[in-house]
Write a structure and sequence with these properties.
By secondary structure, this protein is mostly helical. It has ten helices and two strands; from the N terminus they run αααααααββααα. Strands 1-2 form a two-stranded antiparallel sheet.
């Protein structure tokens, strides 16, 4: 290659570990939602863990609430996809840091705290609406904030807010139901303990992966060589048939049977 390219080294390491917050603009939705979720009273959830002393410590409930709320609002309902986003998406890394929950943990948290989550999600959306947001991800908040300064409008405003809260409740219930449906379908497809995109064991480890890639490359080269030889034999048979019929074989470019050099 004659043209000089930019340097590329996927194995390069950082002198200091980068902060995920450096990868997103200050005005990203995830920061606003984090600040809102920090104000929530999660005692209904944390109370369930107070007498539990078995196994490993659970993930922080506030982090899990934020993770589910943000995911469902941006249209990510699958617990498997949420785990994958936590590994690869900057906004999700801001939420979880380096402590990524497994998809089964995410799904079980939703199941265990379903009633509490529905109420908390509605509270968050009402706070967002009151702070003048008109959308949270894909969830519309238009019309959820009603100015009720004049006393003569208070009754009408109260009724309107009640209806809007019912609407938000139905929307949140639909999001949670969709998450449940997606997880159940993926459990049936992949099995309860598989995410579905795992590499085979020999491809997951770098040493055996490089060996397998080299074997696959050689196998493809051998297949290409055999195909070229078969094409050459076919042409020779065709030419022989032409000569037997008293015809002159067509001139063709010889088939290249030499393996391609590595890049």
């Amino acid at each position: 290659m004659s043209k000089t390219c930019r340097a590329w080294d996927p194995d390069q390491t950082y002198l200091l570990p980068p902060s995920p917050r450096d990868w997103l603009p200050d005005g990203d939705l995830v920061y606003f939602m984090l600040d809102v979720v920090r104000t929530l009273d999660l005692s209904a959830i944390t109370r369930k863990y107070e007498k539990e002393d078995r196994g490993c410590p659970p993930f922080h409930p506030r982090m899990m609430v934020m993770l589910l709320l943000y995911s469902y609002c941006v249209g990510v309902y699958s617990s498997r996809r949420i785990q994958k986003r936590c590994e690869r998406d900057a906004a999700y890394r801001v939420i979880v840091g380096g402590d990524v929950p497994n998809f089964r943990t995410i799904s079980d948290f939703r199941k265990l705290h379903l009633p509490e989550l529905q109420g908390l999600f509605i509270e968050v959306l009402r706070l967002c609406a009151e702070a003048d947001l008109v959308k949270v991800g894909l969830v519309s908040l238009d019309g959820t904030k009603v100015k009720a300064n004049a006393s003569r409008h208070q009754a009408m405003s109260y009724e309107y807010m009640k209806k809007e809260e019912e609407r938000l409740g139905k929307e949140i219930a639909a999001l949670l139901a969709q998450a449940k449906s997606v997880d159940e379908a993926e459990d049936a497809l992949h099995g309860r303990d598989k995410r579905g995109d795992e590499l085979p064991d020999e491809l997951a480890r770098r040493e055996s992966r490089l060996k397998r890639i080299e074997e696959a490359r050689k196998a493809l080269e051998q297949q290409a060589l055999e195909a070229a030889r078969a094409e050459e034999a076919r042409r020779e048979a065709q030419d022989e048939a032409c000569r037997a019929a008293g015809e002159t074989p067509r001139k063709r470019k010889p088939v290249d049977t030499t393996p391609e050099p590595k890049a």
